[in-house]
Write a structure and sequence with these properties.
Elements lengths: L4 E5 L2 E5 L2 H5 L9 H12 L1 H4 L6 H33 L6 H44 L6 H17 L2 H27 L6 H5 L2 E3 L5 E3 L11 H13 L18 H26 L6 H5 L5 H10 L1 H35 L18 H21 L6 H33 L12 H21 L4 H20 L5 E2 L2 H14 L2
Parallel strand pairs: 2-5
Antiparallel strand pairs: 1-2, 3-4
Helix pairs in contact: 2-7, 2-10, 2-13, 4-9, 4-10, 4-15, 4-16, 5-6, 5-13, 5-14, 5-15, 5-17, 5-18, 6-13, 6-14, 7-12, 7-13, 9-16, 12-13, 13-14, 15-16, 15-17
Pfam family, one: AA_permease_2
Subcellular location: Cell membrane
GO molecular function: transmembrane transporter activity
């Protein structure tokens, strides 16, 4: 980056590199509405296969159902908001890009780090669940789980690095397979002759100390843990929708982001709402019920076993892994673009945004994000004593990812409100039908979820982890990163529009 011009403003320094800087960081346009829909649904669909069900153990079925309604409202407000912001600011930066325009460099950075935590840790949790499924299917020892994680990262980072066309083809394929398996499971459960909602879904009661206990005959209360259980279940309900907001990260690889991005986001959201509530009702209504599935790492596999027996279940579950693979592959796409965008703008080291010379994929960012996620998992695995680390990875890391997401949602909602107020003349090809109300509800529900995570001792380890991540990132940016920013598309757009706004 020699022979650069420099510009200082607002406590940060911009470098103005030559065209060769951006030539080494080019992306290809490929995605249309269908590809974007598949990317959004694929990123989330693993939440229908594993993770969400843990909410039964803290809330029972009724508490989890109400928590899911609340979280669905939050995500509708969020997705409508980003459906408005993404075509107005059609850059790879996504949430960072929106906040950068609204609140300046520090606002963009803080929002970007929240998403970075979410997108690096979410695939780590998903590949943990892939490992639990594959361990059950193949009968390999639990101690071999890290090998399944390594294989997962190697295969799907490799596919993402081979080009956007291949990446989206894989995304569409595994998403459609996952949807087919999920529909097959739901139909199998309903017509199995064993479907009994009252007997199985309501088989959770509260013990003397408030812990979940099994009611052998079912017929238990809707809210065995009371209202507190609803709040405890909120982070698990998030797992049914988590990462749908990643779609704006594909803006610079979308053929027509101003037209296609809102359609892809909202079609994906409505698909996920339908799937989420069907799974929530059907999965716990077969033998085992909400009590057994409330502690399961593979509820679809356990469901298939209840319907078809363990032999057929393993074969069917091999296909069911497609649901986890779809999300794993799609969120790898997301952290690659998210790291790439922050690096191209100088918030992260510049070398992370260099793209492949032929495939034009952010391969360095993909390798870096995958390495970080895998190292975090290995560190926990060995620190927690191997197999016993599974609870920490599947629970605490999940809650770290959810906390990062909630903070990001709060900031994105505030960003939407700020853009509406301070940038009324910004071209908006699509406008949210819920506008200020939708963004406000998103912010309120995100704050409630954050408050519960802060006050509940079960989540504190995760919060400490997020705080450390933030602390290291802020130290880096304050000491170095803020002096090396670049007029990337996100930064140039933000500076231009903030100057135009201040002139009025």
């Amino acid at each position: 980056m020699s022979n650069e011009n420099k510009r200082h403003e607002g406590g940060v320094s911009y470098h103005v590199p030559g065209q060769d800087y951006f030539d080494k960081r080019g992306l290809k346009r490929h995605a249309g509405v269908f590809s974007l829909w598949a990317l959004g649904v694929g990123a989330v669909i693993s939440g229908d296969f594993s993770g969400w069900n843990l909410g039964f153990s803290v809330a029972g079925w009724g508490g989890m159902f109400i928590a899911t309604i609340i979280i669905a409202i939050m995500y509708l407000g969020l997705t409508y908001s980003i459906a408005e912001m993404s075509p107005a600011l059609p850059h790879t930066g996504g949430a960072y890009s929106f906040a950068r325009t609204a609140f300046g460099p520090w606002g963009g950075f803080i929002t970007g780090i929240a998403e970075n935590i979410e997108y690096v840790l979410t695939p780590a949790v998903v590949v943990y669940f892939i490992g639990t499924y594959m361990t059950q299917i193949t009968g390999t020892p639990d101690a071999w789980q890290p090998l399944w994680w390594l294989v997962g990262y190697l295969v799907f980072v490799g596919l993402n690095a081979r080009g956007v066309e291949l990446s989206f083809k894989v995304t569409v394929t595994v998403t459609l397979i996952a949807l087919s398996i999920l529909v097959f499971f739901l139909l199998s459960a309903v017509f199995s002759g064993q479907f009994d909602f009252a007997r199985w879904a309501l088989n959770v009661g509260a013990g003397p100390t408030g812990q979940a206990v099994e009611l052998p005959q079912g017929g238990g209360p809707l809210l065995p843990m009371g209202v507190k259980g609803i709040f405890a279940a909120l982070p698990f309900a998030v797992w049914l929708f988590l990462a749908i907001e990643q779609l704006p990260l594909a803006s610079e690889e979308s053929v027509d982001p101003k037209r296609d991005m809102p359609k892809g986001i909202m079609l994906g959201m409505f698909t996920l709402i339908g799937l989420g509530f069907l799974v929530l009702i059907v999965n716990p209504s077969i033998p085992g019920g909400a009590f057994a599935y409330g502690t399961s790492g593979q509820p679809i596999l356990d469901g298939f076993a209840a319907i078809y027996g363990s032999g057929w279940a393993k074969l069917l579950a091999l296909f069911a892994v497609a649901g986890l693979v779809a999300s794993f592959h799609s969120i790898i796409f997301a952290f690659g673009r998210q790291i790439y965008s922050l690096s191209r703008a100088g918030y992260f080291p510049h070398f992370l945004s260099v793209t492949h010379g032929t495939h034009k994929t952010p391969n360095v960012a993909l390798y870096a994000g995958a390495t970080l996620g895998f190292v975090v998992m290995l560190a926990i695995w060995f620190a927690e004593g191997g197999v016993s680390a599974g609870t920490f990875i599947g629970g605490t890391l999940l809650n770290m990812a959810v906390f990062g997401a909630m903070f990001s949602y709060l900031l994105q909602a505030l960003t939407f409100l700020k853009l509406r107020r301070s940038f009324p003349s910004l071209e908006r090809p699509y406008k949210s039908p819920f506008g200020i109300l939708g963004a406000s509800l998103t912010a309120i529900i995100a704050v409630v979820t954050i408050i519960f995570q802060l006050t509940d001792p079960l989540y504190r380890q995760g919060i400490i982890g997020v705080a450390i991540w933030y602390g290291l990132a802020i130290i880096y940016f304050a000491a170095y990163g803020r002096k090396t920013l670049v007029f990337s598309p996100e930064e140039a757009f933000a500076v231009k529009n903030r100057e135009a706004s201040s002139d009025k």
